[in-house]
Design brief:
Largest sheet: none
CATH superfamily: Tetracycline Repressor, domain 2
Radius of gyration: 19 Å
Number of strands: 0
Shape: elongated
Structural class: mainly alpha
Distance between the termini: 63 Å
CATH class: Mainly Alpha
Number of domains: 1
CATH architecture: Orthogonal Bundle
Length: 188
């Protein structure tokens, strides 16, 4: 009886970890095999080549970043603020999705196919955000502007090392999101 093959999802999970830590160039069959404590031969039972693995990593990231986050925010109830803040927390505040999202964004700067995948993910996220806000705000231009501000806040604050005198970064981010989500008369 032969040894059990390393499951496909373990290769993908380890590939996602390497992608988040070191970027796509570091995702190599030999590296993953060593990290998994297996030979690289089992890899080819699941993937034709490294490109197939990279595509599987993007599929897994997209599924986790969109479908799983959407499933979780739907449980937040009808409050739009709660949904938006929970989506931001799940996507851009954690140890799992944030490093992956940033790695994919960096990768997309050098790879047109990855850039197109990122555009699709961002468009899906915008669509969800737009739907949440539009249900409580009749002005499409205002909805779009608030979506852009929220999204830029969620993504961009990671590039800003500024201190916030007397406040933590988390406090400032929460307040900034509240300001963007603050209802205007008759809206949100």
């Amino acid at each position: 009886m032969g040894a059990a093959r390393t499951p496909r999802d373990r290769w993908v999970e380890e590939g996602l970890a390497v992608l988040a830590e070191s970027g796509p160039d570091a995702v190599r069959v030999e590296v993953l095999a060593k990290r998994l404590g297996v030979t690289k031969g089992g890899f080819y039972g699941h993937f034709a080549d490294r490109d197939a693995l990279l595509a599987a990593l993007l599929d897994a990231w997209e599924r986790e970043a969109i479908d799983e986050v959407l499933d979780r925010i739907e449980r937040e109830g009808p409050d739009p603020r709660a949904k938006v803040l929970r989506a931001r927390e799940l996507t851009f505040s954690g140890d799992r999705l944030l490093p992956l999202d940033l790695a994919v964004r960096n990768w997309a700067r050098r790879d047109a196919a990855v850039a197109e995948r990122l555009r699709r993910v961002d468009n899906r996220r915008f669509s969800v955000l737009r739907g949440i806000l539009a249900a409580h705000c009749p002005d499409p231009a205002e909805v779009e502007a608030r979506c852009l501000l929220l999204y830029c806040l969620a993504i961009g604050h990671h590039s800003l090392p500024a201190d916030h005198e007397g406040f933590t970064r988390a406090e400032v981010l929460t307040r900034a999101a509240e300001l963007i989500l603050e209802p205007l008369p008759g809206k949100l």
